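Data availability (excerpt). The following record was deposited with the supplementary files.
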Amino acid sequence: MRRHPIWIILFTILIDTLGIGILGPILPQLLGNPIRRTTSSAKTRRSDRVTSCFGFLVAVYPIMQFFATPILGQLSDRYGRKPVLALSLAGTSLGYALFATGIVIRSIPLLFLARAFDGITGGNLSVAQASIADVTKPEDRTKNFGLIGAAFGVGFIVGPFLGGVLADPSLVSWFSASTPFWFAAMLAAANTTQVLLQFDETNAHMRHVPMHLLRGMANIARAYAMPELRTIFLTTFLFNMGFGFFISFFGLFLIHRFNSTKPGSAISSRGSAYARSSRRSSRPDGWRRDSLNRKS
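Predicted structure:
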C-alpha cells in the first residue's frame, strides 16, 4: 500500500532528529558522570578534558552534515530523491550501530567515526525538503514546511525519553547505554525499507548538473551577498547555534551543577515546546483561534 510521501519524509526527519535527541541523556552520562568519582584537583583537569571531548564528539556530526547536505541535494537532483533517501537512511542505521558498538567496546575513536559517518549520510534534510516541495502546492508549502519543524520537535521529545528509558537497567536487566542506539538503528533500517517499498519518486525533472563538493561554502557566500535576506539568514544561524548549544550541553550542565542522573526529561520538555510552536507557526489562524477560544 502506497502512502503519501509527506508522511514518509516526516518519518525520515524524525529518525534523523531521534538520534540527536538520544545523545542528550546518554553522552553526558558516558563522559560526564566519572568526574564525580575523582579528587578535587584531578576533577577539574578531567572535567576540562571531558568537556572538550564531549564538544568535539557533538560537533563532528553537524560539521560532516554541513559538507554532505548540499552534495546529497545535488545527487537527488541528478538521480532522484528516492535512491538518495534510501542510501542515506541505510547509512544512518549503520552509523547508529557503529555508535552502539563503540559504547560496548568502549572505543572513543569508533564513537567519532560513527558520528562522522552518520553526519555524512544524515545530511538528507535538503532532500526531504525538496521532496516536500515537489509534491506540495504553493499555497500549502508554509503548512507542510512547518511540519518539518514539528517533526524536529517530536524527535527532541521522543529521543531523550527513549535514551533515558532504554538505557536504564533498573527497568530491564539487559538495558544499557548502547540499547537506545540499537533501537534507533532498527528504526532507520525499517524506514529504509519503507522508502524502498512505499515511497514514489517525487523528482519529475531530473537533470545532470555539475557536482560542486564545496557547495555549502558557496551557499554561505551567496546568502551573505543578498542584502534583503542577510538578516534572515543571520537570525536563523544565531537561533540554530543557540538551540544546538542548549540541546548539546544542557545535559552535561545538569550533571555538573545538580548531579542529575536523568537529564533526558528536561531536554524532552524543550522539544515539546518546540514542536508545538512549529506546528502553530505553520498555521497563523491557529493562534487566532486559540485567542478567541480563551476570550470566549
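Summary of structural features: The chain has eleven helices and no strands.
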